[in-house]
Amino acid sequence: MALLDSDRLFPVEPGVRSIARGLYEGVKDLPIISPHGHTDPRWFAENNPFPDPAQLFVTPDHYVFRMLCSQGIKLESLGVPRADGGWTETDGRKIWKIFATNYHLFRATPSRMWLDHAFQDVFGVTKRLSAETADEIYDQIADCLQRPEFRPRALFERFGIEVIATTEGALDDLKWHRMIRESGWKGRVVTAYRPDQAVDPEYAGFTETVEKLGELCGTDATTWSGYLEAHRIRRAYFKEQGGATSSDHGHATARTENLSEAEAAHLFDKALRGACTAEEADAFRGQMLTEMARMSIDDGLVMQIHCGSSRNHSGPVLNSFGRDKGFDIPSRTDYVRSLKPLLDAVGMRDDVSIIAFTLDETTYSRELAPLAGVYPALKLGPAWWFFDSPEGMMRYRQQVTETAGFYNTVGFNDDTRAFCSIPARHDVARRVDCAYLAHLVATGRLDQDEAGEVAYDLSYRLAKQAYRL
After folding, report:
1. Contact in structure between 7 and 16 (CB atoms under 8 Å)
2. Under the phi-then-psi rule, with left for phi > 0, alpha for psi from -120 to 50, and beta for the rest, what region is 5?
3. Distance from C-alpha of 277 to C-alpha of 261, rounded to nearest angstrom
4. In 104-245, where do the E strands start and end?
5. pTM surpassing 0.90?
6. Distance of alpha carbon 288 from alpha carbon 257, whole angstroms
7. pLDDT digits (tens, 9 = 90+) for 226-256
8. Among 145, 279, 370, 445, whose Cα sits 20 to 30 Å from the Cα of 214?
9. Percent of the chain topping pLDDT 90
10. Rounded to an integer, what distance in angstroms lies between the CA atom of residue 328 and that of residue 262?
11. Whole-angstrom Cα distance, residue 465 to residue 429?
12. For the chain, what is the mean pLDDT?
């Protein structure tokens, strides 16, 4: 049987569904532009087979193991590595059995659609995953993974990926990106500059990171001017060695500052000494967003701001397993007041591009769409993370289009660590956008030919243009 309905996510009313289906046919096979994500460049550099189905679908994907964790299943039993090097399950079949036995937990979630899409379209699975089918499906996928056509580069090409951006920290040597480039493979894998650990005074080891940054750059990064110069040097390195076209900033709030040089230097000195209060640490992060925007004017890197997440919410999980283990929770975010210092500094310029994301969708129509609808420097990122779901994507279009239009948005990015979910996620976005456009056509608000152009732009052109790819 087919795991997926061919008309999934299209409107129910036959006439509108027909319009949506026609629009989708025009964009479903467009190349994928994946401008922001967390796939491992080592996969494409070494091009080794993925180890087993559990290592491909379960252990690296916080969308999957956070749901299982919510039902009391231990992260150790899913193979998630412990920070202290303690025991975790390494038998892929055992991990898969737990996953399959609890697959019902994913009913009606976006993860279920992405997983079924990968099972069916990538690996030819025709039976629903369950405790009864676990071994059979595990064997089928494991057998595929041993074949050359299922290695990372082959899948990259099969998925129709034109370009994919990974995300590396400020100290990364980018050796995997160099290896990809030197291999002669034609797949385009670029990096993005993610300096969080070097701009957040509350990040463990901040002072040591700054010192290492200076060592890498041959500058005294413990002075304010030397610190800024070190970031400029690293950004240039990421462009040259990793093909970077963007920087990425994951902050708890959207706060920005535009302090005088003396005020910023004083705050930086306190940060290095570990003497910042929580308020001062937030102010320093805010100042660095404005500094990074100024650097973008000079070097052309597109600036992404991902904020509004209470990251690593569980202290015990953070201590046992480290960061980014599914315990990042959306929080209320203020953009109108928080972004004003940054927008006062650079917002009216057309030679810098700032893409704002949110985990607080209540801000779409009230704050972000009006801001993106007037400031030349600001664009609105797509429904993100907790809202990169059919309902979230539709709410996004409904709330932002009337104020920001389509062309102050930047298409879609998948922001994933789960490689095989990339085509599924883009397919979901294209279907939802076509459903929304079909409704506009059916209600007389958009001509059919215009809808086709917009569908193309949302699926392909806007992301390529916004990220300068």
Report:
1. no
2. beta
3. 20
4. 161-165, 168-169, 188-190, 193-194
5. yes
6. 8
7. 999 999 999 999 999 999 999 999 999 999 9
8. 279
9. 94
10. 35
11. 18
12. 96
Output the six-digit token pair for 202.
């509350």
Distance of CA 394 to the CA centre of its chain: 19
Choose among 26, 91, 83: nearest CA to 52. Answer: 91
CA 134-139-144 angle, 5° bins:
130
Residue 94 dihedral angles phi and psi, to the nearest 5°:
-65, -40
Quote the CA–CA distance of 435 and 332 in Å, as a whole number.
29
What is the C-alpha to C-alpha distance for residues 375 and 336, in angstroms, rounded to an integer?
A: 12
Q: Which residue has the tokens 């008309």?
A: 7
State the greatest distance between any 2 C-alpha atoms of the chain, in Å, as a whole number. 67
Tokens of 283: 């102010």
Q: How far apart are CA 290 and CA 17, in angstroms?
A: 45
pLDDT digits (tens, 9 = 90+) for 142-175: 999 999 999 999 999 999 999 999 999 999 999 9
CB contact at 8 A, 367 and 335? yes
Q: Is 130 left (phi over 0), alpha (psi -120 to 50) or beta?
A: beta
Q: How far is residue 278 from each of residues 200, 266, 274, 389, measured CA to CA in Å?
A: 11, 15, 11, 34
Query: What average pLDDT score do residues 314-333 get?
Result: 91
Question: Angle, nearest 10°, between helix axes 224-242 and 175-183?
Answer: 30
